[in-house]
Write a structure and sequence with these properties.
Blueprint (H helix, E strand, L loop, with lengths): L13 H9 L6 H5 L5 E4 L13 E12 L3 E2 L5 E8 L4 E7 L3 H4 L6 E10 L3 E5 L2 E3 L1 H6 L2 E4 L8 H14 L9 H6 L5 H9 L4 H31 L12 H5 L7 H14 L6 E6 L5 H14 L3 E5 L3 H15 L6 E4 L5 H13 L4 E4 L13 E6 L7 H8 L6 E6 L5 H7 L4 E5 L10 E5 L4 H13 L3 E5 L17 H12 L5 E4 L5 H12 L5 E4 L12 E6 L7 H8 L10 E5 L5 H11 L4 H18 L18 H17 L9 H12 L5
Parallel strand pairs: 5-7, 10-15, 10-16, 11-13, 11-14, 12-13, 14-15, 17-22, 18-20, 18-21, 19-20, 21-22
Antiparallel strand pairs: 1-9, 2-4, 2-6, 3-4, 4-5, 6-7, 6-8
Helix pairs in contact: 7-8, 8-22, 8-23, 10-11, 11-12, 19-21
Length: 680
């Protein structure tokens, strides 16, 4: 059976199951064979009963001592119990509504039981365990566990995969022989068979190592090809300019990191290929100033610039900041947002099209079809983590491949940066402007809330302002005793009650853009003492007078998100505070929050987040617009990623379009991976 055979023709699948497989991205026989296990149940190393880890899934080898007759429980359920054990301890086994499981067991015989182990040191118990005999373990010593979907469990997937392995022609080898030899990797077909049916953990590890390298190589090839596709086009040619007049115009001295990043950006803009760079820096590191240096260079070369921000509030702030920085050099700034009045929008569009606006600052409205530039040469995307590859491409399409700078205030660990931004050069702002004081951060339990509000009141009395962040807008019916503090409820029942007589504002994502802008402007102007909000203030207006940040249910956020929120205060000269409020009793939660209390380095925080929560939680969504990885572990596979990147560059150096006969399978794999990716 050929690899491109529709999956429905695999024995045991059929049309209905094939529809379910589609939800897992499986369309063909090859897709099914490349649906790799998430983990294994390892029957080769069973635990003695007493040594089985408590409250964890484990395989226990034990002999059956006795069996009890099935009992009918209230509500119609049946229960059957079996007593087993070994020399170390006894093991109680219970099945509900599956009494036939006990019928299969023979007293005096040994079996392998798999499930969640509970109980005491001397008497362990497992509810509804899976049972296997010694003969079954000998045939399949490691059982693969697959990603599931509704109506399609791991066991059924395993049976379909087993049929596919029997029926399939060997999958073609995408990797060049030289790479297999260089990295001592098994062949594709050998690795695929081994990862589904490993005879030992070592065999599974070797297969995973090979397939992980292939996965990362395919991804890196795709990213480099995407980048070269843009680089092949003629960008806006620019001559180098002296930034000294720009730096000299500032009322403060830029950091060495800002000067270095600006020099890297301007050098790229003066090169033969278009700039394609990520400017990455911690909250408050001064990315806007560096972007302004790029706008200055574009203006000196007679080109327009565009800056796209994720919110109207932030766009307005950028327009104001850049007007002050660049206005003295004759740079005319136009603001373009979806919420503008029709007449103002028409005037802005006309100015952009006529070349009378040198810098256009806006939201995604900049990408709309009605926006025409006279001579766009430099495009900036702010808060890259909120925009996907597609938006970046749309912005770049407004001209003949302009220079593109993307900025992110989310510090990204090196491993993740290599993966997500393999198509970009990276500049890092690794120091904060002088005078910025670290934000004093404290973890607070909920019962201390009243005392904390006493501190807030004192801060307000001293003329400071306060942010209070809650995770939800409204209470949901599904919320139990551990319900999140809904922002509306919190505003009425907590904030207003504990801050009597204070001017407390409310902001959340369900407000209209104009309403949000009005609230933020009132807060910025000092007309509000406190602002109760959802995370919509993560990216927002700078309020130098805001000195305190309170984050309710802090355990619900990744550390990187908490660090972003904390960065909304500490922007003035005064001492600033951040309170992380959580009633969660888990040790891991306490450790995470304490780590943040003692660390101000966003890159260290991001690294910790990635290691403890994974990339999905790190970003919170999939807006980075890259293919989902099946096997690669971003915290453990750094060496494999670096090797894949190096190999990708070498391969494309020899064969820029992967057109050689020996690279056709690999080229098709790259094309397929990126074709199936949803770019946001």
């Amino acid at each position: 059976m050929k690899p491109d055979t529709p999956v429905q023709y695999v024995k045991g699948v059929g049309p209905k199951t094939a529809e379910k497989f589609l939800r897992l991205g499986v369309e063909t026989l090859a897709d099914l064979l490349q649906l790799y296990p998430r983990r294994y149940i390892d029957y080769t190393r069973p635990f003695p009963v007493a040594q089985a880890p408590f409250d964890a899934d484990a395989v226990v080898k034990a002999a059956v001592y006795s069996k009890k007759a099935a009992v009918r429980l209230p509500g119609g359920r049946t229960m059957v119990q079996v007593l087993a054990g070994d020399d170390s301890a006894s093991l109680s086994l219970t099945w509900f509504n599956t009494h036939f499981m006990a019928d299969k067991l023979a007293v005096g015989e040994e079996y392998y039981f798999e499930g969640r182990v509970r109980g005491t040191l001397t008497r362990r118990e497992i509810a509804n365990p899976t049972v296997r005999t010694a003969a079954q373990v000998a045939r399949t010593p490691m059982v693969a566990v697959y990603p599931q979907t509704e109506g399609l469990g791991s066991g059924q997937i395993a049976r379909c995969v087993a049929s596919a392995l029997e029926e399939a022609d060997p999958l073609p080898e995408p990797l060049p022989p030289a790479l297999l030899v260089k990295y001592k990797l098994p062949g594709k077909w050998e690795a695929v068979r081994a990862i589904h049916c490993p005879e030992a953990p070592e065999a599974a590890a070797a297969a995973r190592r090979r397939l992980t390298f292939e996965e990362l190589l395919t991804l890196q090839l795709g990213l480099i090809l995407l980048r070269s596709r843009g680089a092949a086009k003629a960008g806006a040619p620019m001559r180098g300019v002296d930034l000294a007049p720009f730096w000299a115009s500032l009322p403060f001295s830029p950091t060495a990191a800002q000067r270095r990043a600006a020099a890297e950006i301007c050098a790229d803009m003066a090169g033969a290929a278009p700039l394609n760079r990520l400017l990455q820096g911690d909250v408050g590191s001064g990315k806007t100033l560096v972007a302004a240096a790029g706008v200055y260079m574009a203006h000196q070369n007679g080109y327009q610039s565009a800056l796209m921000a994720p919110t109207e509030i932030l766009a307005a702030q950028h327009a104001d900041t850049l007007e002050k920085l660049l206005g003295p050099f004759g740079v005319r700034v136009a603001l373009l947002t979806g919420g503008m009045k029709a007449a103002a929008k028409r005037a802005a569009l006309a100015a952009v099209a006529a070349g009378e606006a040198d810098l256009v600052v806006g939201t995604h409205a900049v990408l709309s079809t009605g926006v025409e530039f006279a001579r766009l040469g430099f495009a900036v995307v702010d808060e890259q983590h909120r925009f996907g590859v597609r938006q970046r491409g749309l912005l770049a399409s407004k001209a003949q491949s302009p220079h593109v700078l993307v900025m992110s205030a989310t510090p990204i660990p090196r491993t993740l940066g290599l993966l997500l931004y393999g198509d970009l050069d990276i500049s890092i702002l690794d120091e904060l402007p002088p005078g910025r004081k670290p934000v004093k951060t404290r973890a607070v339990r909920g019962e201390k809330r009243r005392a904390m509000y006493g501190f807030l009141n004192a801060q307000i009395e001293a003329g400071r302002q306060v942010y209070i962040v809650c995770p939800r807008v409204e209470e949901g019916e599904a919320d139990g005793p551990d319900a999140l503090n809904a922002v509306k409820t919190y505003y009425k029942e907590v904030a207003q009650a504990l801050l009597p007589g204070r001017r407390v504002g409310l902001m959340h994502g369900k407000l209209k853009p104009r309403e949000k802008a009005a609230v933020m402007e009132a807060f910025k102007a000092g007309e509000l003492d406190a602002l109760v909000s959802t995370t919509v203030i993560e990216v927002g207006v700078d309020v130098p007078n805001a000195a305190v940040m309170v984050i309710e249910n802090a355990e619900r956020y990744g550390l990187s998100a908490l660090h972003q929120l904390r960065g909304r205060v500490g922007r003035g000269a005064q001492e600033s505070w951040c309170f992380l409020v959580s009633d969660h009793g888990g040790e891991s939660v306490r450790e995470r929050l304490q780590f943040l209390c003692h660390t101000q380095d966003g890159f260290e925080i991001a690294k910790y987040d990635l290691e403890h929560r994974g990339p999905g939680d790190f970003f919170g969504d999939r807006q980075h617009g890259l293919p989902t990885l099946q096997l690669a572990d971003l915290t453990a596979d750094t060496r494999a990623l670096e090797a894949a990147q190096k190999s990708a560059r070498e391969l494309l150096g020899q064969d820029p379009k992967l057109a050689a006969p020996g690279h056709q399978v690999l080229a098709a794999q790259v094309e397929r991976l990126f074709r199936r990716t949803t770019f946001n």
